Every structure is written in C-alpha cells, then in structure tokens.
Amino acid sequence: MIFSFTRKLLQWHAANPRSMPWKNTKDPYKIWLSEIILQQTRVEQGWPYYERITKKFPTVKHLANAREEEVLKAWEGLGYYTRARNLHAAAKQIVNDPEGKFPSTYERILNLKGVGPYSAAAIASFAFDLPHAVVDGNVFRVLSRYFGINEAVDSAKGKKLFSELARQLLDKKNPADYNQAIMNFGALVCKPSTPECAICIFKKQCIAYKTDTVFELPVKSKKAAVRYRWFNFLVLENDKEVIIEKRTAKDIWKGLHQFPVLETVSYQAQSDFLKAWKQTAFFKGENIKVNGISKVIAHKLTHQTIFAQFISVPISAVKKPLPEGWLRIKKSRLKTFGFPVLISNYLAQFRNEEDGSK
DNA sequence: GAGACGTGGAA
DNA sequence: TTTCCAAGTCT
Q1: Is A316 (CB) below 7 Å from strand C?
Q2: pLDDT tens for each residue of A252-285
Q3: Backbone phi, then psi, for A112, in 5-degree steps?
Q4: What is the DSSP letter of A283?
Q5: Is the CB atom of residue A222 positioned under 7 angstroms from any atom of strand C?
Q6: CA–C1' distance A138–C3 (Å)?
Q7: Of A7, A225, A237, A301, which has the fewest Cβ atoms less than 10 A away?
Q8: Active-site entry in A35, A44, A99, A241
Q9: Structural domain harbouring A322
Q10: Strand C: which positions are within 7 A of a protein CB?
C-alpha cells in the first residue's frame, strides 16, 4: 500500500524539480562522493567541491591512488576533515575488494568508512534503486511536523521511531524518487526557521501546523557546549621561507597544516609566549627581535571558539635540527598544503599586505 | 551514548 | 552582532 503522504509528496516532487550536478548520474562513485560532501553541509557549499573533486579524481581508482595530502587539499575549506580521510580510506577499500566493483548492497555500502545509515540508504537508493529510506535532518523535520511527533530525534528511542516510520512511508517501487522528494521538500518548503506553511501542500494534514507547534519541532535534546581554546602561533619566516607543521593529533583539523603552536587554556600574553618559546632547546639564544604580532582573532566554530594570535619571528631564530615535525618550506609552496580556514585567512591577509605595499 | 568534528549562510 | 544550524559519522 502507499500512504497519502507519500503520494502527495511524489506529486510535489514531480512538479518541483531541483537540478544538482550529482543527479545526472547513476555512477555509484559520484553518488557516494556527493553524499559524503553533503553530510552536515549545504548544497550550495558542497556543489563546487563536488565539481572540483570529480574533475581531479574522475574514478574511485584515481581517488584511491592519490596521496592523503592531495585529498585533504581538495577538501580544504569544507570542514569536518575526517570525512576526507575516511573517503580516501573507503576508496582503497573499494579498489582492493576482490569483486573489483563498487559495493551494491546496503550492508556492504554501510561497511565503507565514513558511510553510516543515512549515506548507505541514499547510495543504495540513488545508485542501485534499492528500497531503503533515508533518515536525515530533513526527514526528522518533515515527519515530526506532519505527524506531530515530539519524541527527541537524537534519542535512541526517537531514532528508532523515525526510522520505522520512514521505512513504512517509503515508496518501495520508487525509492530514489521518494528519498529525493522528502529531502527536497524539507530543504525547500518545510525549512527549519522559515517554513513555507502558507503554500504547503500538507496544510490540511500537518499536525504541527494545525496545533501551531511548527516551531517546536523537531525536538532535540542535546545542546552543544562551547569550549574556549587559545592558539598562540609562532610564524618563523623570512622573505622566501616559513616553518609549518602538520596537525596529527586526534583533534580538530587533523591532517591539515598550521604554524608551530603553543596552546593554552586561557589568554597568553605575547611576551609570556615568547619567553616560554625562548626557553626551549630550539631557540638559538641570540637576542631576536619580533617582526610583528597579530591582533587576537576569535574563530567561532560549532563546538568551540578558538582565540588565535600570530607572532612573526625571523626564521634565523630557530636552531637546527628543527623540532620533530617542523617543515621549513618555500613560501611559494604554501598553496600546495591544506590549511584550516583560520590559517588560510592569515596567509591571505599576509599576501594582500605584501601586494598592497608594492 | 555523549561528545567531537568545520564552515558559511540566513535570520 | 549573535545564534542557529545543513543531505551524519565515529569513538
């Protein structure tokens, strides 16, 4: 049987087509790539990355054969960099598989690194027309409002309830269309803060609309606490060269690069920072003058606010051999490394000042 | 199961 | 300006 919700949703979808580059293909590689890019990411933000990455890595083999550095560089600026590292790992998983082709069952797709229940259902339906219902933020929102469900979507009970409901509502003859329809509907009509209830096809049935609880739904129980961190960057440089290092810890921006940093839990006066560094074994010990000090920059992220300051010091202030992990590179090569936006912004400003002074 | 993980657009 | 949050997954 097919529910009236499903029938009307499919009608809406047919009348409101939405063009996106990954919708012109049945290539599971490209569909998988688009789904990873779109995790927690707006279509408009992911679109250019999809174009760039499919051009750079046209097949899963190209991606698997790339170096992790290249993959991270391609992902630079998109955020949630674990996605890029998992994407790369999954590409290797796929090409090393004895069957030698993209996995084509829900369970095997789910087994790929970085692919959870949502992405597995999306890939299974879009690439292979398998009857699996997607459950993402759009689906939570649309279903919680339409059916007036106030169970928290991020609780175990809520997740189970919504998955089961989504499974029942799925048009099993048309899983790709149905999944695309409900996500588009959530993105274009049943929006989080500015839903288009006035023109909504479900105005007569929607419980939230009828009970004036549209803005209470969906219910989320968790609230992210914001943590504060202070990053004191040491920019060792001369006209031609600079020292950078790669972030390798299980922490934000893993795999990207930065300047050598001293992290503190509270504000660190620049003089104290310099004093601390000058006491390390790597400081040459001569009386070094500081080139310049940046203002404190507040970089606000979803779960933490990072206060950053950059202290520029002549590269000659550091003793050889360099500390483990430090890379002395030509400034012309900076563009070949991946950096978090915080660092990219600093570099861009630096370049602009250079240009401006000439 | 709670907490961690980025960025940029919209209100 | 600040706050919210977008096609989630991993640990």
Answers
A1: no
A2: 999 999 999 999 888 888 888 888 888 888 888 8
A3: -70, 145
A4: B
A5: no
A6: 20
A7: A225
A8: A35
A9: 227-356
A10: 3-10
Residue nearest to nucleotide B7 (CA to C1'): A79
Sign of CA dihedral A345, A351, A354, A358: negative
Nucleotides on strand B with an atom closer than 7 A to protein CB?
Answer: 1-11
Domain assignment present for A222: no
A35 a catalytic residue: yes
The CA–C1' separation of A110 and B4, in angstroms, is 21
pLDDT digits (tens, 9 = 90+) for A66-105: 999 999 999 999 999 999 999 999 999 999 988 889 999 9
Q: Tell me, what amino acid is at A355?
A: D
How is residue A175 written in tokens?
């899983």
In angstroms, the CA A108 to CA A112 distance is: 7
How far is Cα of residue A112 from the mean position of the Cα atoms in its chain? 17
| In a shared domain, residues A171 and A48 | yes
Alpha helical stretches, state H, chain A: 4-15, 28-37, 43-56, 60-65, 68-75, 82-96, 106-110, 117-128, 137-146, 156-169, 175-188, 207-210, 270-278, 341-356
**Token digits of residue A321:** 């051999």
A158 touches strand C (CB under 7 A): no
Residue A221 domain-assigned? Answer: no
Report CA(A190)–C1'(C5) in Å, whole number.
15
Q: What distance in Å separates the CA atoms of residue A160 and residue A164, rounded to the nearest whole number? A: 6
Q: Are residues A132 and A62 in the same domain?
A: yes
Beta bridge partners, A230, equal A264, A307
Q: Per-residue pLDDT for A356 more than 60?
A: no
Domain boundary among A164, A197, A216: A216
